[in-house]
Amino acid sequence: xxxxxxxxxxxxxxxxxxxxxxxxxxxxxxxxxxxxxxxxxxxxxxxxxxxxxxxxxxxxxxxxxxxxxxxxxxxxxxxxxxxxxxxxxxxxxxxxxxxxxxxxxxxxxxxxxxxxxxxxxxxxxxxxxxxxxxxxxxxxxxxxxxxxxxxxxxxx
Length: 156
Fold this sequence. Notes:
This protein is mainly alpha-helical. The protein is built from 4 helices and 3 strands, in the order H-E-H-E-H-E-H. The chain has helices at residues 25-37, 53-64, 100-104, 116-149, and strands at residues 41-45, 70-74, 107-109. The longest helix has 34 residues, at 116-149. The chain is globular, with a radius of gyration of 17 Å. The termini are far apart.
């Protein structure tokens, strides 16, 4: 599936509605498969995202198991079908069991516009750049980690 400016999104059947229950093994498997196929996990942050166990699970897996870059995008300024904007939600990343160091590696973007049309356009045209930046930064960190892990040559 293609979305804003050619950004590939997960298929519609992997996008889930916010849930108050922990993901079951089938949902965990679907989340894991989607993260494994992704170059970057984009968390759309709304009013209740921070309390969604599926989001908390996905973020933890992306960072700890898959080393997939993660970004957050605040969507509270986007209007729903009735034209009402949401309330800003709390940071979902702080509830994902991530270390302070891992939290510093996650950027959250908040459109600087108050109207839904402008906020939506800002997200649409900026999302690819935000993702590419997170992917580049992740690759840079992984390369640096690899250099530190290589055994150094010893002199005889």
